[in-house]
Amino acid sequence: MASIKSTRSLTLDIPPSCIEFVPGHPELFVVGTYYLERKDEEGHDTTESPTGQPQQRTGSLLLFKLEGDEVTLQHTLPTPFAIFDIHFAPASTSSSAPLLGAATSTGSLALYEISASTLSITPLSVLQIFPTTSLITFFSWHPSIPSLAALALSSGSIYLCDTATIAATASNNTDSTPVLEDGDTTPSAAAYLHAHALEAWFVAFTPDGRGLLSGGDDSTLVSLAPLPQASSAQELLAAIADAPPAVQWQDRKTHQAGVTAILPLEPAPSSSDDGEERQQQQKPLLVLTGSYDDHIRLLALPPTPTSFPRRPKLLAELDLGGGVWRLKDITTATAAGTTTTTTTTTTTTNSSESGGRGYEYTILASCMHAGARVLRLKGSSQDEGGEEDLGWSFEVLAAFEEHKSMNYGSDVQPGEGGRKVVSTSFYDRLLAMWRW
């Protein structure tokens, strides 16, 4: 394992909570910040103040430019709420003005455009989905249905919402009345799915968009029954209103603390076109999880509600020395005898000189007080069993440990072979660029 030194570092004015490079513009990245009037060294504080009033939180969005080893701040946009999480919409890769969503400390999902020509962040709308006392801790865009997002709340609730419908409704209102109370459903705009016993920290769609996984402070990983097939967010929400998806299974035994990250891996390519869709449906879904218990884990999830066993199967795990807050697939996989690399989608390797099969992923992990890690996940076998039958293992390739407080956000610059990383830490307000 290589210990990495930064090539450039900056101290920000406000603690950074999340980071993401701009799709289609690899020289640009956005950082979300989170300022709380009272700091809690255990992580993002979701509690009330000693007076019983919600803690006051503010934040900002920062647009940076990365050229060579130089990192320069281009635009600062202050926000009246703290930013928990940011993600670009999937269609942003082909857009001249990528759409950015931000989960906030006031129950809203804020939307912005990034201009690469003017190097600026433009506010579009603030979707007041929940009361201002609610905290949206994480959200995820649907991989193929535009404007559909899944939301995780500090109350434990998990929701689906149609951001386009909510934005249209908001444009016709002069006040900031929330669309719904926590636990309610508005069929045309948002649907309540289920709730964790404690804070919900993460929600993720499966690669095909039909499955939904969530994790919470209750140490539970939850899978919902497959979502209805639909071509639009409104169509899907209407179908859910008629027949809400049930909880397919709940796993309370695998994780020894809160589930803070969920990363479904892209399925391996089929070796045959005959019955490929049916074969993929029968394969267990491979999922990486992160937890406050300091472990990264690889799980094989049951492919259908009737599969046995019903619980996820643990394939590999590794103690990373700190709570695993975020996981990002930055795969630079190479098949035997090839040198092809990619950093945009999950890639698998197959074939080996001995006739077996091999799969390899490269993962960037934000490990809170332990800093950032780059890991290799590798599976290999000499037989023709399923992916869950491979011998899987984790290997730490690089560790970046200059952060002196919680590393909540890290991302890799696209187009650099997965070798140039920008990571952040919360209380010391450090932003660092490094290579591995």
From TrEMBL:
The keyword Repeat applies. One of its GO terms (biological process) is protein histidyl modification to diphthamide. One of its GO terms (cellular component) is cytoplasm. GO terms for molecular function: diphthine methylesterase activity. SUPFAM superfamilies: WD40 repeat-like (SSF50978). InterPro entries: Diphthine_MTase, WD40/YVTN_repeat-like_dom_sf, WD40_repeat_dom_sf. The keyword Repeat applies. Keywords: Repeat, WD repeat. Pathway: Protein modification. It comes from the Eukaryota. This is Diphthine methyltransferase. It comes from Lasiodiplodia hormozganensis.
